[in-house]
Amino acid sequence: MNLKFSVFFLLLSFQLLAQQYKEVKDIQYYENPTSEYMEKQSRLDIHFPDSDNNKKYPVIVWFHGGGLTGGGKEIPQELKNKEVVVVGVGYRLAPKIKAEETIEDATAAIAWVFKNIEKYHGNTEEIFISGHSAGGYLALMVIMNKENLAQYDIEANAVAGLIPFSGHTITHFTIRDQQGIPGTQAIVDKWAPLFYVRNDAPPILLITGDREMEMLGRYEENAYFYRMMKVAGQKEIDLYEMNGYGHNMVYPALPLLLKFVKEKSDQ
What we know:
Layout: H1 3-17, E1 21-28, H2 36-41, E2 43-49, E3 57-63, E4 85-89, H3 102-116, E5 122-132, H4 134-144, H5 147-150, E6 161-165, H6 173-178, E7 204-209, H7 218-232, E8 237-242, H8 250-266
Parallel strand pairs: 3-4, 3-5, 5-6, 6-7, 7-8
Antiparallel strand pairs: 1-2, 2-4
């Protein structure tokens, strides 16, 4: 066999051995949707390794941004084909609902993942919660307030890690807006992750854009959350500022998410 054909068959062998991936779309995560809008919006997509063996892979649950008023479920391209299961979550949006009701959807979606992701080769002991902006806020709210997942008999601290991208740590501006509170008036109430500061949370990596380029106060909110968590005694928490990038810092920050998942999964 000449060199040309040898290289061809070698490359073909590598392709056959390479990990294959599948996607399923529009899975309803409520058992009994209570409205047509909930039935339409409360769905998720899954990108997962199509493996014949019994290997289980880390899971990233990703919540899209959009101020709780816009956007749609997504799986960032940079997270695909990376030996992780990725779940892109859709949720209901204001003003069709009260903005705080989005937390109910985010909670239900995470509960669904805990109870079903093994069917898609996901490891329930390595579920990481992430998202950008409003999605980062939802990730923080569901996990920091342990009562959310407790409704589904799930311990919030069973999550392997929490990685919000530029998420609010004070009460979300859309929730404040629906109450007639301006965006420049900071509120920390039961709709704020800061309200639930504690020392036993899962490992956390806070990522924001450059403090001089971010949305109003977003870096400083995260820095204060970081400091209060440290004061409370949280051991595993870090804050990373993406110098030179503004609020739309998702693409350059995704390698940090994958690095965090790999490090925690290898422990």
